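Progress against Task 2.4 (sequence-to-structure conversion) is shown through the following example record, which the project officer requested during the mid-term review.
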Amino acid sequence: MRRLWDHPEPECEEAEEHDWTSEGEGGLNDNPGVWSTGGTSMMFSTHCRHCGMRRTECTTGSQYDPGDCDTTEYEPALDWCAECQSEECTCEE
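Structure tokens generated for the chain above:
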């Protein structure tokens, strides 16, 4: 039986709800923020356009070992500029 290990989604500090995007997350231009981690497992990297919170989702795919589970983790941005969509603001330059 495959399990899902999921952290609850934290509230967005800048808006009513998160607006997740994979723009600028690396990977291929046609599929940003998506990474193969071997076999059928994948990792999806996104961030909130409002507050910069990072979300990393890892899926085990169809070829998984007993005890493996899908995960979703969240990491707050240290400093976020919503206008630049970056932790390094260039608005004032």
